[in-house]
């Protein structure tokens, strides 16, 4: 495959760190990465095809523009993506997720670079469709006072602007929409910010530390969980872009075969943690409490009761299908955090 130089902003994030690893192990491409820290990419840093710099995309704008010029493909993965923060600090979300990222979109337009941009499953909001379709589903958001939707709305606007740049000014782009990715390196199980981590990290932390699991509004809401490794296979196909198949397209990246309610997720996790002798006692004594969403997140929160991706686009155009069930995904994640076992390193051997 022709050599490529890919810029990943947010290289130390959950998706960023996993993608850097995937590219370095499965291709011969070069990667230029930037982030505020590098704790999740220690192995990748050893690879001479990976050039990493500690940079802030807001403060180091000129540096970012230089890299955009040098690379052929740009993935701006820096964003706040935790629902508690949408409600607590919506303006921080707006400044980083919207303003800072829009700058980078414009750089890609100005320098004629390929842009692969993270949209989100959140853009569908409270869409009633059984399967969310990239081209047909309506994007349904709540009232303004429900501040949770600021993230969704920002991402939708970015999607629309990128789409327009593609149609009217020739920007080469692909939008991808992650659906509840889970896996090692998401948030830190040992030190989640209480109420500010995504659900799997929060529940794992609570179980291993003997704290009560809080089921928001009873936990009937459902999510379809996607193992990060499956997701990275899909990302690589988007990056490869055989015959330009991903250009100007939107792809849901999700696992419609692994839909569970949040209560089911909690119960399965308690069972799995019970298999680790060091934490078996805490798992046996795990308690589940139901809390109203207003108490847990605040007044500006509104939930999504069901979020199911259609992955027809990814299946038909990219030839991708997710392969990992939730139980296996959680087990690999727990092995990483509780036993220090890294499946990525094992596989790369
Ligand atoms: C998240 C984030 O918005 C984004 O990271 C991302 O775009 C999207 O998922 C995605 O990955 O598709 P959400 O699924 O609502 O949205 O986030 P979680 O924090 O993982 O919560 C899932 C569900 O668990 C929610 O219904 C929440 O109320 C519930 N929850 C969360 C609890 O019951 N207890 C907790 O302690 C934490």
What attributes does this structure have?
349 residues, alpha/beta, Rossmann fold, 7-stranded parallel sheet, two-stranded parallel sheet, 13 helices, 41% helix, 15% strand, binds uridine-5'-diphosphate-glucuronic acid
Structure description:
With 349 residues, the chain is of the alpha/beta class. The chain has a domain at 79-181 and 226-256 and 302-323: Rossmann fold (3-Layer(aba) Sandwich). 41% of the residues lie in helices and 15% in strands. The chain is built from 13 helices and 13 strands. The chain has helices at 14-26, 61-70, 83-88, 90-110, 149-169, 199-208, 228-240, 262-273, 280-284, 293-296, 312-318, 326-339, 343-348; strands spanning 5-9, 30-35, 50-54, 73-76, 114-118, 173-178, 181-182, 213-216, 222-224, 226-227, 249-253, 259-261, 288-291. The strands form four sheets. Strands 3-2-1-4-5-6-11 form a seven-stranded parallel sheet, with helices on both faces. Strand 1 (5-9), helix 1 and strand 2 form a beta-alpha-beta unit. Helix 1 (14-26) packs across helix 7, helix 6 (199-208) runs parallel beside helix 8 and helix 8 (262-273) crosses helix 12 (326-339). The longest helix has 21 residues, at 90-110. The two termini are 22 Å apart. The model has no long low-confidence stretch (mean pLDDT 96). Bound molecules: uridine-5'-diphosphate-glucuronic acid. Uridine-5'-diphosphate-glucuronic acid is lined by residues 81, 83, 120-122, 178-181, 198-199, 202, 214-216, 219, 221, 223, 262, 303-304.
